[in-house]
Amino acid sequence: MTSTTSVGRVRAVAAAVAVAATVPYLSLKLLWLTGHPVGAGAPNELDDLRLVNLLSFGMDAIAVLLALAFVRPWGRRAPAGLLAFPMWVATGLLGTILVALPLFLLSTLVLGPEDASADDGAGGGPAGWVFPVVYGGFAVQGVALIAAFLLYARQRWAALLRDRIGELPDSPTLTVQRAFACVAALLGLGVAAARAYWAAGRTAGLPAQWADERSRGVAVMNGVTAVMAVAAAAALLVLVFRARPQWRLRGPLAVAWTAGGSLFAWGSWQLVAYGTFTTVTDLRRAAPGLLTLVQSVQVVAGVLVLAVGAIALVERAAASSARTAAADVESTG
After folding, report:
1. According to DSSP H, which parts of 200-287 are helical?
2. How far is residue 203's CA from residue 205's CA, in Å, rounded to a whole number?
3. Do 223 and 195 meet the contact criterion of CB atoms below 8 Å apart?
4. Can you say how many angstroms the Cα of residue 9 is from the centroid of all Cα atoms in its chain?
5. CA distance between the termini of the chain
6. Which of 76, 137, 170, 178 is the most exposed place for a label (fewest CB within 10 A)?
């Protein structure tokens, strides 16, 4: 009982920290949405970015609801899918930042700051203080929200986290799952190749303005996305082909969950936020629409990972319910 109470307190603290960490970002977005250009390098562009700012505000507001769901009684009664899908997206977004941000900071320590970072917004980008405030908040939010979710999952889906890969039930749709997983793996490898190519400083396939304004942060994100694509493919194949039956299910499941969510969430966000800027006009330097194609393939690969996981988990839940019902019949008979 004491252990359960302690876990509940830790979960409550993690959820409270996650909510508090959203305040800087939500406040900044609210200021921009209401026409106050605090920290904005180009105030005249706020109207053009209204939809993007509204979407990002809404996404962080959903993170607040998720944190509350992990500690409130109504969260334990909510349908699993209603919590799992937005948390999958949140894990993909925030988990990627938790990987990319330390790498970016390390590159700054080793290589020094980029020249463009010294203009403090004069060049049209956000003011220099915006990056540490926003991404510092994202990092704290990511750690706290994911921790609260893990403790919530430990309570609600404890059996799933204890199972081994070899204990997954026989599935009538296993052939379909394997087909989806193979397609997702092929798409993921294509994304990884393209993102690694761009991370190395190559520019073919990028819009001209992106090729001219390469930044270290974008290179790090491309590299992390390449790793996520490979990780999602590998973890999913291990699960559907039962490659390591003695392994605990939670390890590959966590990798597939995070990496698949990263592909879907960041691919979708980039399509929405930057899609209008990806038209290539300089055919001597880039293949038309390649960046948009890679982003779209990311989304499709993420959807396939989600589909395989949803099918497998629904079938596992059905098999568990059937075993429970059979045991009840035996005990009453």
Report:
1. 208-212, 216-240, 250-274
2. 6
3. yes
4. 26
5. 34
6. 170
Residue count of the chain:
333
pLDDT higher at 277 or 153 = 153
Do 292 and 275 touch, CB atoms closer than 8 A? Answer: yes
The answer, yes or no, to whether residue 276 has pLDDT greater than 80, is no
Token readout for 262 is 């990263």
Q: How many CB atoms lie within 10 A of CB 212?
A: 11
61 Cβ neighbours under 8 A, 6+ residues apart: 22, 26
Q: Is the dihedral of CA 115, 121, 125, 131 positive or negative?
A: positive
pTM of model > 0.85: yes
Q: Do 86 and 145 meet the contact criterion of CB atoms below 8 Å apart?
A: no
Average pLDDT of the residues in 113-138:
73
Which backbone phi and psi does 130 adopt, to 5 degrees? -65, -45
Token reading at 131: 């990056």
> Which residue did the predictor score with more confidence, 204 or 101?
101
Are residues 92 and 1 in contact, defined by beta-carbon separation less than 8 angstroms? no
